[in-house]
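Quick one:
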Amino acid sequence: MKIKSNGSPDEISSPFFITNKEFCYQFENYIASKNGKVKGKYNAWSFLVFGKISKPKNWNLMYKKASFTSGNIFLSSEYQSLLVLAEWETERKGTHNSEFLIRKKTRFDFFRIPLSKSLSTLDVSNKYVIKAKGSKPKLLTELIGILKNLFVSEEIYKVVHANEKLRIELRTDKHHFEVLDKLIEL
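Output:
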């Protein structure tokens, strides 16, 4: 495995360590199946892994999990927080005229949407807004179709297409390889 453990010997039997190791093992196998490269570290509390796929297009993938505590082991888990995220990024040469942003709604959007011509609600989930100049680009329509289930489950944090780069940010503890496969072929 190219993704290495940086956990202490005491952590190895922890169910959290085993879960994180399995997540990293599955990620490494997926990237290997695409003839890509991986690197990263994991332990019982966290992992940070990177993958790069070069064919048919370059995709850079990153998954991160981090557990934060208050520092007091006697406080309950409600004082601890967990960050899980994934970022998928690729270059889209020749798409500089189709810049857009999809993000979760804020309470201020209630007032902005009726007044803004560049801000609209996402059709598949009213929890998101789209900011795009002019009409919706073809890429945006295709992405919404591929990412529909992730919008419905609210795992999408943000989708940005700017400067000929597409970046999809998620807040999830799942790989979503089936979605990645569709995006890679896009």
